[in-house]
Amino acid sequence: MENKIRSHSHGPNPSASDLESATNSHYNLLGSHLGSHEKAKEAIFYSYNKHINGFSAVLEVEEAANIAKHPNVVSVFVNKGHELQTTRSWEFLGLENNNGVVLKDSIWEKARYGEGTIIANIDTGVWPESKSFSDHGMGPVPSRWRGICQLHNFHCNRKLIGARFYSKGYESKFGRLNQSEYTARDVLGHGTPTLSIAGGNFVPGANVFGFGNGTAKGGSPRSHVAAYKVCWLGTIQIECTDADIMKAFEDAISDGVNVISCSLGKTTPPEFFEDGISIGSFHAIQNGVIVVASGGNSGPKLGTVTNVAPWLFSVGASTIDRKFVNYIQLGGDNKHIMGVSLSTGLPSDKFYSLISSVDAKLGNATIDDAQICMVGTIDPNKVKGKILFCLLRDINGLYYAEEEAVSGGAIGLILGNDKQRGNDIIAYPHLLPTSHINYIDANYVHSYIKATKTPVAYMSKAKTEVGAKPSPVIASLSSRGPNPIQSIILKPDISAPGVDILYAFIGAISPTGLASDNRRIPYYIGSGTSVSCPHVSAIVALLKTLYPHWSPAAFKSAVMTTAKILDTNERPIRDQSNKEDATPFGYGAGHIQPELAMDPGLIYDLNTIDYLNFLSCSRGYNQTNMKIFSKRPHTCPKSYNMLDFNYPSITVPNLGKLHSVQIVTRTVTNVGSPSTYHVHVKTPYGISVLVKPSSLTFNQVGEKKTFKVVLKVTKPTLGYVFGHLWWFDGRHKVMSPLVVKHS
């Protein structure tokens, strides 16, 4: 399946005849290559006739190659798949006090809880019966709403005002769905959680087997929400294709949404003109719609961040100050090993026999497979009634290790991380008493088992602990920079709560997804950039209510420049993977602070022309590529310097050798009261930084001032070095990361 994409010549509000004309032009173009108008109609399953100008069609490789040569075709690319990236958060972020009381000056109160804004979620659909989507207390549907509710085993209301599903891209690759599957209903358990975090109502009494904060809370609870289902269960994994994603973006823009939340992404980001999310989101921001996307779950390895286009708001994941912990004690040992879990305790308050998976393996199982408790490797006769110890290498190991433990009759399970997983431990609603421990503690348990003739262990019941320090910490799972496509743009942009977050769940599957798990729960706890992304979507929706005329870039700047880089101990935010200080490659500009984002003082603004200059100059896109993003011809200005791209962060990936100098220019816009700002700099190691001028005075809202940052190498070093620059007027601290690499 191929996609042919460019931009339309008609305006942002096309008539019915404009849409029909655009679609017919697609039929005519393809028909000229396939031999008839009718064959083209059969091949094309999406005609993008509103904002994106192109179509998706089922073609042979030779047909796609031939049509790519047509002078009016600017791009042909394969319909690739994207992956899914998956409430004390709001209290932790300062929207309410420790007793759950909303403060009168909170962004919730000032922004009327997001009243009047519309949040779209491009994901796996939604479970409409969830109490998080009740329309109790909701106002009328905004008059600008032009969307629909596809009523296939589904219903909408004044909260959940729209729902659509898109399957043609999926079906072109994987075959037809069953008739019963044609619905926007979420049966995979990803879209419901993400949408409930962004715009779900407050639901008292929500918890997971007694864990949680007692009330599920969406970040923008008076916003209206709409679900755009683009993901389906494939033969191996969940599939979300470019063709379906672009169609969802196009409809969401036309439907009148304000914010699009997209917790999807590719493990390896492609060039922007070959990526459905990049293309769709570009057309969204052209129409004033803010797009927030997950930064990926491939951390802690560097250079793994995804959704890296500068017009996208990319989000990393961090912890909050709540943990779900239990403790392990080994026989003859006074040491208590802390793990995490959402499971019950052992049946009796006593020590139980402890066995490693290698010692419990079946005769025909390999040691490597048995270490991780791969399905079919454990001998039930050896583990029955005992606590089983398994090594955990990846997230999938949670499932098959538990399946083996349950089927083998184990009384409990200890999951110990391998070296690569390190400190990344996950609270999970296990079917049997379980504790997930980090790599160092796993080594300790493994050594104890090997050195002890009859090893035994005790495991406490899991409990909720609040006030954990330090917090936030950048989650190991969260993908890291630098940006693999364009290193001069720092990604992720921001970090937000993404570990052990309470959210709405679905009634179609169990919390573990295992065949032996018959439980159904309305709320669940999970982790990942999939859940950090909608936190930012919610905050942006609140800001949109406060500042309806701001540009998408202004909202991003307000959030980024007011972020914090210190934890609750007033020390630099740490990295969960190595317990060292995190860097902007993990947290971007820092950890989100909604209350400060309401009043940023100054913003770094960008518009469509700036993004087009970025594509034509920085990426070197030719006129053919540029037509995907702009209906008018666009070429790189002769005087353009990519370092001067007015991004809220400053990255210089090739500063040069000793005494080399680079000059970066930025322009800030005043959005606060008249004031004078003075510059402060924490210089990166081996770099001198001079800012000219050192003070900026603003007399009115909307006034712009330009400054230059002169960076010079004073002591060459390997790799990236980090610092910060901030403007301060006694009230507003407008901060930007400085990320520099010598040649």
How would you describe this structure to a colleague?
This protein is α/β, with parallel strands linked by helices. It folds into 4 domains: 2-68, no CATH class; 88-96 and 114-319 and 471-548 and 559-584, Peptidase S8/S53 domain (Rossmann fold, 3-Layer(aba) Sandwich); 323-462, Glucose Oxidase, domain 1; 602-606 and 646-741, Immunoglobulin-like, CATH 2.60.40.2310. 23% of the residues lie in helices and 27% in strands. The chain contains 19 helices and 38 strands. Strands 17, 18, 19, 20, 21, 22, 23 and 24 form an 8-stranded mixed sheet that branches. Strands 7-10-6-13-15-16-26 form a 7-stranded parallel sheet, with helices on both faces. A 5-stranded mixed sheet has the order 31-38-37-33-35, with no helix packed on it. The longest helix is centred in the N-terminal third of the chain and has 19 residues, at 16-34. The mean pLDDT is 93. Residues 114-590 form the Peptidase S8/S53 domain. One of its GO terms (cellular component) is apoplast. Residues 17-81 form the Inhibitor I9 domain. One of its GO terms (molecular function) is serine-type endopeptidase activity.
